[in-house]
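Usage

Read records sequentially. Each one opens with the input sequence:
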Amino acid sequence: MQRSVSKYDFLLAAIALPVAIAGVLGAVSTLAMSTALAAGSVPASGGIGYALFVEQPTEQ
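and closes with the structure output:
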């Protein structure tokens, strides 16, 4: 069984990526970690909203 990367896999990565980048920036800069993670959660929550209301997973 061959598995390929779907658009939903990219969507999951797009949700996690801003939070991960914000965590790294909070760790290496003078910015407070809570501020960096709060800023990273904004685009992540946009991705969650997109996944829930615009591009829902469907059965093939």
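Summary fields computed downstream for this record:
- The chain has a mean pLDDT of 89.
- The chain has two helices and no strands.
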